[in-house]
Specification:
Layout lengths: L6 H42 L3 H25 L4 H28 L5 H15 L6 E3 L3 H17 L4 H6 L2 H15 L4 E3 L8 H21 L4 H23 L1
Antiparallel strand pairs: 1-2
Helix pairs in contact: 1-2, 1-3, 2-3, 2-5, 3-4, 3-5, 3-7, 4-7, 5-9
Length: 248
Amino acid sequence: MQKCHTPEKAEKYYICQKKIMRHIIKSIPNLLTLSNLFCGCVAVTYAFSGDFITAFWLVVLAAVFDFLDGMAARLLNVHSPIGADLDSLADMVSFGVAPSAVLFTMGVGWFGFVVALFSALRLAKFNVDDRQTTEFIGLPVPADALFFVSVGYIVSAGAGTYLASVFSTVWFLSALAALFSLLMVSEIRMFSLKFKNFGFKDNALRYCFLASSAVLVALLGVRAVPFVIVGYIVISMVRNFVTVTKLS
């Protein structure tokens, strides 16, 4: 015969289950961050083996997890110092080491790891800079990473084409690595794609940028990604110039 639980035992069981659920909910953002890290680790192995196409998609997936972990933390209202540090560590691998591995394998050699070094500086600055709550100062590391892994994809998938031959030039890749590294630690203000609300008035720039990027990707596929990133940089710089001009 099944024994009936006393009210005291039922209450303890309820409290225990509630604690377990709270712990699971609090762990969701960190699990998403770890998924980002896992994708980055695997992307590095594919990059070193010369499979730039797989490396590209893994970094894209890492970027998706990077976006989702922040969204989950905000929606669930579970913020912690450990989560912030873990996020930076994951980003360092997925968006710092992975693109550097692509550059190294493409012939840039050890200089390619300048991207990883400046990514570390960029992430460290972000963690202690309270000016970056609504916008970025310096090029975000995911944007930098997507640029270089997409370059690797284009070279690998489009061998013989003009764009692929341009991106295959070692001195040009080295110059891009140096330029983008400096952009990451620059004081240039760059708009964020995080939405606080969905009204067009407050997000006109975001909507226009996302719509134009979607059109480019639909037309050109992965070949559009470097141009989308360059467009993001140029628009941010023009926005800065207009803002400074208005203030002066």
